[in-house]
Amino acid sequence: MLCDDPRRDIDDSCSVTLQGQGTSCADNAAIVGSSPQVQRMLDVVDRLAARDLTVLVTGETGTGKELVARRLHARSGRRNGPFVRVNCGAIPASLAESELFGHERGSFTGALRSHRGYFGRAHGGTLQLDEVEALPLEIQPKVLRALEVGEIQTVGSGVATRVDVRVVACTNTDLQAGIAAGWFRADLYYRLAVARIDVPPLRDRLEDIPELASHFVREAARRFGVGAVRLTGGALAALGAMSWPGNVRQLEHMITSMVALGDGADLDETSLSREGVGDRESAGQAGEGGAPRSLQERLEAVERSIICEALASCGNNRSQAARVLGMRRTTLLDRMARLGLRERGSSRRDDSTPAHPEVVS
């Protein structure tokens, strides 16, 4: 679990966080879990942290890839340098080169001042490329050059600039399939995967659920000021019987919802159904007529639930909910449209009129 308290948020539209000079990520992050799978992974992470190599972190959505990236940084010789995280999937393709490498004033229409890209901001530290599979194909050779020779060229400049950056790339996609399909370069893949760390899904480490759930309960109780709350054995047994397509992130949101909607008393197995948690899990696994849903449908059910919870916690302010979810507002609106969510009782597209999301049948 990441206990995140970043120094500053550089650019909310691109989901970037900078760990400022002199601040250790170790102070803000911890990976919870005592299972053999997690301990083996942490052993690999800690051995690679001391070696200044590019690392590819793979794993399903919600498994904690960012935590691994932060631990690699926190235990490396770059720990006192910046930690910069950029969501490649949130950068428009037309702006990718400028956002990653920077641009000079006047280099294109609208470039009213010089802009330092994310590689430049991460100089002396670590750059996490999240959703690296989303890098536009035409930008990939320039990322490869930055990795191989440590040089970047800002848009509008004819001079190469040296950068000292360790890249940790994260993906939930099979990049080798992308190579075969032609949307990801083989040379970039092999340069990113100098070392590889696979983050196990929660279903493969169910024995960690009591520890994770207790951690999330403590965090939520502290956040909402409800005093000491604990999960009963029955509740833990019920959580252990779930399939967790959304992994640790799904568990975190589920526990947070239970604590937020509870009355401060201990949470037992009835709390899951009382707060709608059990219904969401069942809805994520069964389709019409009780037939099992596909993995994609189950993941969409989890994503729909998480977005609804974020909107509810933010008073249905979509801009604020997008910040909480770590994405741009336009990305949130696109996902709401894809998932069949619209605003009940409102035809407006601004944030001035509160509305409740509902599923469009």
Which SSEs are present, and which pair or pack?
Blueprint: E1 8-11, E2 16-19, H1 36-49, E3 55-58, H2 65-74, E4 83-87, H3 96-101, H4 118-121, E5 126-130, H5 140-149, E6 151-152, E7 161-162, E8 166-171, H6 175-181, H7 186-192, E9 195-198, H8 209-224, H9 233-240, H10 247-261, H11 269-274, H12 277-285, H13 295-313, H14 318-325, H15 329-338, E10 341-344, E11 356-359
Parallel strand pairs: 3-8, 3-9, 4-5, 5-8
Antiparallel strand pairs: 1-2, 2-4, 6-7, 10-11
Helix pairs in contact: 1-2, 5-7, 8-10, 12-13, 13-14, 14-15
Give a verbal description of the structure.
With 361 residues, the chain is α/β, with parallel strands linked by helices. It folds into two domains: 8-200, 3-Layer(aba) Sandwich (Rossmann fold), CATH 3.40.50; 206-359, Helicase, Ruva Protein, domain 3, CATH 1.10.8. It contains 15 helices and eleven strands. The strands form three sheets. It has a seven-stranded mixed sheet with strand order 1-2-4-5-8-3-9. Strands 6-7 form a two-stranded antiparallel sheet. A hairpin with a 4-residue loop joins strand 1 and strand 2 (16-19). Helix 1 (36-49) packs across helix 2. The two termini are 36 Å apart. Mean pLDDT is 78; it is low at 1-28, 286-290 and 343-361.
